[in-house]
From TrEMBL:
<feature type="transmembrane region" description="Helical">
    <location>
        <begin position="288"/>
        <end position="307"/>
    </location>
</feature>
<feature type="domain" description="Sugar phosphate transporter">
    <location>
        <begin position="21"/>
        <end position="305"/>
    </location>
</feature>
<feature type="transmembrane region" description="Helical">
    <location>
        <begin position="236"/>
        <end position="256"/>
    </location>
</feature>
<feature type="transmembrane region" description="Helical">
    <location>
        <begin position="196"/>
        <end position="216"/>
    </location>
</feature>
<feature type="transmembrane region" description="Helical">
    <location>
        <begin position="263"/>
        <end position="282"/>
    </location>
</feature>
<keyword id="KW-1133">Transmembrane helix</keyword>
<dbReference type="InterPro" id="IPR050186">
    <property type="entry name" value="TPT_transporter"/>
</dbReference>
<dbReference type="Pfam" id="PF03151">
    <property type="entry name" value="TPT"/>
</dbReference>
<feature type="transmembrane region" description="Helical">
    <location>
        <begin position="137"/>
        <end position="156"/>
    </location>
</feature>
<dbReference type="InterPro" id="IPR004853">
    <property type="entry name" value="Sugar_P_trans_dom"/>
</dbReference>
<feature type="transmembrane region" description="Helical">
    <location>
        <begin position="109"/>
        <end position="130"/>
    </location>
</feature>
<protein>
    <submittedName>
        <fullName>UDP-N-acetylglucosamine/UDP-glucose/GDP-mannose transporter isoform X1</fullName>
    </submittedName>
</protein>
<keyword id="KW-0472">Membrane</keyword>
<feature type="transmembrane region" description="Helical">
    <location>
        <begin position="20"/>
        <end position="36"/>
    </location>
</feature>
<dbReference type="GO" id="GO:0016020">
    <property type="term" value="C:membrane"/>
</dbReference>
<feature type="transmembrane region" description="Helical">
    <location>
        <begin position="162"/>
        <end position="184"/>
    </location>
</feature>
<keyword id="KW-0812">Transmembrane</keyword>
């Protein structure tokens, strides 16, 4: 096997169909979970979002453990090396979860939407700095279009709240770091997709439960009066199941695509939700500025999707990888040339002896 073939074996090229379906799966999963969480938290007025998150982590642990015992999936058994391989992902996830809950209470919905879009350029910067990706100007401009469109869509509703700004931008940083960390940890040489999901949930569920206990969220959840309501209980369980499916879809999208593509897929999903809200729901206040901004966002998201699907994922690999390939090829050529020269010398010596 040649060096090039070894290099390709280490970095498999996923099909366009797998990349597109994984992004679509993430968008649909996120959309459905938003609807379910809205029903549970808003319509039934369940008092503890954190307890709902604990339920989602618990379902994730149970499903993956049973699947491993039945040998449907495989991931490493627990060892002393697991925390070292996994961290700091659980801490980043908890920071993302807590800052996300706090940020929605500090800002208006338009301003919150605008600032959350900055998770996309932050992810782009982190991929360039940490994963050493190389993105062309066309993709960078499409990302910028999404940000500009979000700002235009918000219009004059950009109220200033310093505390809210800081919390949302922290949430953006945690969200971007979570995607980058997942992309690194799902390497089969590390923990793999299922190992990351299982052990991340294991390490997250205990501190989250402690935090919810001391903040009173857990007590509110236990004292909730509608636990015997079959409709509420069914939606609560489905929401917990969808929490696992969403986590899996995020890992899958990062595996087949990249953290940046996962972020853009989420942005496109939010834009589609906004489009649906224009015609369904009855609480939308029509504004040409808002519609114009949404169209800019969608144009940026679609152009990014087209550019990504038309490209080879290895086109964005670090420059050093290409240099290493060339160096490896030159060494191989040098070895071949050396062998040829040595063979020629042997033949000349034999001819002289004759």
């Amino acid at each position: 096997m040649s060096i090039k073939e070894n290099h390709d074996a280490q970095k498999p090229v996923h099909s366009k169909c797998a990349r597109l379906l994984s992004a679509f799966f993430y968008g649909i999963s996120s959309f459905l979970l938003v609807l379910l969480n809205k029903n549970v938290l808003s319509i039934y007025r369940f008092p503890s979002p954190m307890a709902l998150g604990i339920g989602q982590m618990g379902v994730t642990i149970i499903i993956l453990y049973v699947a491993k015992q039945k040998q449907f999936i495989t991931f490493p058994d627990f060892s002393k090396q697991i925390p070292r391989k996994l961290f700091p992902l659980p801490l980043i996830y908890i920071g993302n979860h807590l800052s996300g809950l706090a940020s929605t209470q500090k800002l208006s919905l338009p301003m919150f939407t605008v600032l959350r879009k900055f998770a996309i350029p932050i992810t782009l910067v982190l991929e360039i700095l940490l994963l050493r990706k190389r993105y062309p100007l066309s993709i960078i401009l499409s990302v910028c279009a999404i940000i500009v469109g979000a700002i235009v869509a918000a219009g004059f509703d950009l109220s200033f709240n310093l505390e809210g700004y800081i919390i949302v931008l922290l949430n953006d940083i945690f969200t971007a770091a979570n995607g980058i960390c997942i992309a690194i940890k799902i390497d089969p040489k590390e923990l793999g997709k299922y190992g990351v999901l299982f052990y991340n949930a294991i390490f997250m569920i205990f501190p989250t439960t402690v935090i919810s206990f001391f903040t009173g969220d857990l007590h509110k959840a236990i004292a909730f009066e509608q636990w015997m309501d079959i409709a509420f209980f069914a939606q609560f369980l489905i929401s917990c199941l969808m929490g696992f499916i969403l986590l899996y879809s995020v890992v899958l999208c990062c595996y087949y695509n990249s953290p940046l593509t996962t972020m853009v897929a989420g942005a496109i999903k939010n834009i589609c939700v906004a489009y649906i809200g224009i015609f369904i729901g009855g609480d939308y206040k029509f504004s040409w500025l808002n519609v114009f901004g949404l169209n800019i966002c969608m144009a940026g998201g679609l152009s990014y999707s087209i550019l990504i699907m038309q490209s080879n994922p290895h086109d964005f690999d670090p420059v050093n990888d290409v240099a290493n390939d060339k160096e490896a090829f030159s060494k191989q050529d040098g070895m071949c040339n050396g062998l040829l020269i040595s063979e020629e010398v042997k033949l000349l010596n034999k001819s002289d002896e004759k």
